[in-house]
Each structure stands twice: as structure tokens, then as C-alpha cells.
Amino acid sequence: MRKVTIQEIADSLGVSRTTVWKVFGGQAGVSQELRSKVIAKARELNYTVPESSGLATDSVADAPINIALAVCRPETSTFWMTIIHQIAKELSRHDVNLIYTYLPLSVDAGYTLPASLTSGGTHGIIIINVYDEQLLRLLSASPIPKVYLDTSTAVPPSELNGDLVLTENRFSVSRITEQLIASGRQTFGFIGDIDYAQSNHERFEGFSKALLLHGLSADPEFSLTGPIGRDTYKEEISAFLAALHDLPDAFVCASDYVACIVMQLLLGRGVRIPEDVAVSGFDANQEDSLAEDLTTVQVFNPHIGFRLAQQILFRIEYPNIPYEVITIASQVIFRGSTAASSRGN
């Protein structure tokens, strides 16, 4: 027997797909009369109502809240796992079910979202480490309340159809760049794909603004800001450095991961850090031993996880309030990798 869809139920009643989804998800904003009609039509058409919706027994008010965590490659870094752990901890405190939904790194035109995000039993989605444009647009088209942690520059906040949580990026990197200038650095490069993520682009903006305020600019020759393959960072950065006729006084990097690769490659060439070249990162990620002396920006992962959990609960309760872009403060940590320069003095 052919499976009946939510869209068919909506069409048969002359209502929107979102209205039907709200009924199956136990959401507010639908009158009791219309709610009853949707339930009756679903049963008439033999639609399989998700058990998680609570409609099988008409006990919508008692139905559990289910939050999907849509995430790509969470196992690649403890950075993501710390955030996820705090989300799970906070939602469990509210007796909310958390459903892991693993998404691919990229999708083609024929891809459809997993059933856990479309069946009607999911009340909200928290989206983490998803930067593929096609996948982000599929998620944004879903009527389910959503909260994103970062986004791609190809899908700006106004097109996400959900709330966006970001760390503070511009001021932190500006402050690092200001310190590098004050310590005697005169030439600068930025390394990191600035269009991969909104956060990377904001870090580059902070870097550029600080230079501009001092009448300086980043020499394009010293900067690698275009696309970098997910699994070829070291090879591409190595080729970039090898092609340089000279080195700048400082490299400001989009992340600690990138900064540690840069440091490893420079040290392998006999370049002294910070005496010859200063290097900074972002995220305060201590997974690489080189990060112990790296100037970076502390990101408060537990608070990010807590805020994501709180925001999705808020968005479910108040679906019609304008979407928000939330910035969580970060903290610069100055270490030895950006100490005073011995060049040009």
C-alpha cells in the first residue's frame, strides 16, 4: 500500500503542511476544531501517525518533546562532543528526548532529509557542524523550529528560517591583530577558508579592520582564504607556504587546527615562532601539543551547548517571535606564539 504523506492530508483539508505538522508534533497555534479534523483525516487516509506524537491515544498534551540533534562528523573533535554533552545534559533536565541524527558532509540534488526530521514526531532541531549549502537549504525549508550553531556564508542568517548562535569573532581577532601590530609586526597573512563558515568570515573581518585602523593591509600573497579540502589542509597549506618568496611577520589563522598545521610546517623549515613569525588561532583547542603555547580565543563550549538547548525550547514555545542571532562572548588568551618580534627592529 502506498504511504500517505503529510502534504496529502494538508491538501485534502485545504490547509498548509505546516499546520498538519504542528498537529502531529503537538505544537501550539492550531485550534482544537482544526486539530480534530486533521487527526480524523489522517485516520481516514490510514496515515501512520508517529508513536512519538502521542496522537495514537489522542493525548497530545501529554506527548513527550523530541529534539533532533542534526550533526555532521561530531567525532572529529572534542570541541563538538563537549557542546553535544551539555545539550544532552540540559535537555534531560527538562525531560526532553534528544535524538541523534547524523547528516552527510555534502548532498546532491536528489537527497532528502532523514525520516527523524520529517515524520512529524520531532518538535525541534539543533543543527551543528553543518556547512553544506544544499543541506542547509533543505533544513531551512523544514517547518520544524530550528536553532543553528554557525552557518555557511552561502546561507546567511536571514535565509535560515531559524535562530542562529555564534561565538564573538570580530572583536577577539581584532584584539589579537592589534597586539601583533603593537609588538612590532608589520606584514600579515590570514589562513583559513573565509567562506566555509560565517564565523571564519567574521574572524577575517576583525583581522582586516584592525589592520585598516593602523593604515596596514593583508598582503594577498601571504593569505590563503579560499576553499581548502576537508582532508587536505596540511597538503594545501604546505604548498602555499612553499610557494612564498618570503614570510610575513605574522599569520592569523581561522582556527587552532589551522594554526597548529602552520606552526608544524614552519618549525619543520627551521622558522622560529615567535621570533621570526608569530602565529595565532581560535577555539582554545588543546588536542595538539603545539596549541599549548598558541595565542588563541577561548570559546565556552558548555555555555554554547546550554544556550542551544534553551533556545530550541524557547523557539518551540514561541514559534512566531522573530528569529534571533545570538552572540556568545569569547575570551582572548595571549601566549608565547605572538610575543614581540625580533624582525625589522
From TrEMBL:
The keyword Repressor applies. Keywords: DNA-binding, Repressor, Transcription, Transcription regulation. Pfam families: LacI, Peripla_BP_3. Signal peptide: none annotated. The keyword Lyase does not apply. CDD domains: HTH_LacI. PANTHER family: HTH-TYPE TRANSCRIPTIONAL REPRESSOR PURR-RELATED, LACI-RELATED TRANSCRIPTIONAL REPRESSOR. GO terms for molecular function: DNA-binding transcription factor activity; transcription cis-regulatory region binding. Residues 4-57 form the HTH lacI-type domain. It comes from the Bacteria. This is LacI family transcriptional regulator.
